[in-house]
Specification:
Shape: globular
Strand order of the largest sheet: 2-3-4-5-6-7-8-9
Helix content: 25-40%
Distance between the termini: 20 Å
Number of domains: 1
Radius of gyration: 19 Å
Oligomer: single chain
Largest sheet: 8 strands, parallel
Structural class: alpha/beta
Bound molecules: (4S)-2,6-dioxohexahydropyrimidine-4-carboxylic acid, zinc ion
Number of helices: 12
CATH topology: TIM Barrel
Order of helices and strands: EEHEHEHEHEHEHEHHHEHHHEEEE
Number of strands: 13
CATH architecture: Alpha-Beta Barrel
Length: 347
Amino acid sequence: MNKSLTLTVPDDWHLHLRDGAMLHAVAAHSAGFGRAIIMPNLVPPVVTGAQAAAYRDRILAALPPGARLQPQMTLYLTDSTDPADVVAAHQAGLIRAVKLYPAGATTNSASGVTDFDRVRPVLEAMAQAGIPLCVHGEVTDPAVDIFDREAVFIDRVLDPIRRATPGLRVVMEHITTAEGVAYARSGGGDLGATITTHHLVINRNAILAGGIRPHYYCLPVAKRETHRLALRQAATSGEARFFLGTDSAPHPDSAKLQPCGCAGCFTAPNTMSILAQVFEDDGALDRLEAFTSLNGAAFYGLPPNAGKIRLTRRDTPAEYPAQITAGDETVTVFDPGFPLYWHQEDV
Ligand code: DOR
Ligand code: ZN
């Protein structure tokens, strides 16, 4: 029997749209979201308000006619970011947040922060102005095991930053561990956490058991099953501090399928169908809207989107492409490993 659910139009609080041919190929797949926080890790990165405005225009030009998506731009924090520039860009309405990548933590993070003391004045100015900091929470110390890098970051970097900068609004991006969930819960209304679609579905076995599967490799890397279950519990709890940030991160297959392949799962085309299945499996369909459409907006101080979507569970699986084309390249769409019976429509 068909089952139907009407939701406020969802938002994606962590999205990679890239640029050029890739942007043109992927933009339509996020066009049904109301708002998305756009990651600034282009080459070169988006570091000024003017660059953010120009990138926003390129995104709007790449979206199909009638697209809903309102890109929410971010600046890429570097050791030399000027606090006054950040505040001015925010006051001019050019940016919604600032992104912190520890230098070397992930794709195109070479210009990221090398010394957290050097960005202290920026963080203080952001706390004063109420500008959220979106944090890629992994240490880069090669002595720390890659599966421990999130938990160590919380202790060594994130907690000290938050203690030193009262009032700073922080989003722990794409949390992947029970420690991340617990730390997010330890904060007040100034601390939120995004959770991706793929981290609710896969654990590290998907990447490594029975052969190496590069399309499941992302950063922070998926952890063991206990952590995935903690994330599922958090996402489906309805708690205001947890909200959707897909981290949909398209890469050409030619860059993923390499001896040293790059990190990222491309989930934009099937995210809502996957999430409906996840929430149904956990008996939490009544809390899906909080996770996808309400909690993030509230954290960012924005009203929920005005429109509605309908998700209908049909007997026939929803169709989505296994790959899309971007210029001369293909990009593989995330395969959740189960059929998707939830179909999305506008109301
Ligand atoms: O898997 C990831 N891909 N994690 C990130 O932090 C960056 C992203 C990308 O830009 O490809
Ligand atoms: Zn990301």
